[in-house]
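re: ur question from yesterday

yeah so i grabbed the chain u mentioned. its 274 aa long if i counted rite. heres the sequnce exactly as i have it in my notes:
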Amino acid sequence: MPVGICPMCQEEKKLCMSHLLSKKIYPLCRNDEFEPVAVNSQMMRPTVKQTKAYLLCETCEGNLSKNGERITVPLLSKVDGPFPLYERLIKQQPIQITESMSVYAGANNLEIDVPKLVHFAMGIFWKASVHSFGSGSDRPRIDLGQDGEALRLFLRGEAPLPDHIALAIAVESGPTRFPAMIDPFPGYNLDFKNFFFYVPGMQMQMYIGDKVWESPSAKYCINVNTEAPILLVPLAKDMRGFMAKHSANAYKTEKLLKTTAEIEARGLSVKLGD
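ran it thru and got these structure tokens back, copy pasting raw so excuse formatting
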């Protein structure tokens, strides 16, 4: 293992191979027959390659695992299998129902560890803010500016999340779950700086702004509302649409085209990029 400065503890130590999204999420995005498809604006290809880099020391890697990943990842949706987080949510009655979503109180559900969900999300946003993870640039995946330090201190248990950072968690409500991962990416909120990422069955969205706690959206943020709301919404269509938009002009490899032809020969419909 190489030796370097761990960006979380800021000490010189041996560095572990760190995944941007936990390595245990990858098996949730594939079956025994076909490889996952990696999608970006330049290329679409089947691959078993994982997004990782030498980044954290063993202690800090263990911190992210113990306080977030180890609890959260087993709750995610499995391909053609159970979806434990959804199943735990619907055991209780929603605290609000609208045309577009149902809202559940995470704080009232003993089967859901809200602090671990928050730590899991913030750990991924923070890692994306300190390293490029092979994105083709030396710059980190997202730019949090000075707020990256606030997340670092929170993840180390040295400070609470500041009032100008809020987190919204959405869980797939429909029968079709999108078995994919979307790395942290800038969002489109016009009122605040925001970022999101997606893992099978769950979207995490972070809002950053001086008046974020006063906004109408704040009541749906898990670290703002004392009921710790978790939103049940139809995510699959939006996530597929996002990937389609950002891969519209991507090159499709021969391997991908061959795999697609095999699937369509069975009478199934495949839309590349959708």
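noticed a couple things. The chain has one domain: 3-265. also Residues 114-130 form the longest helix (17 residues).
anyway ttyl
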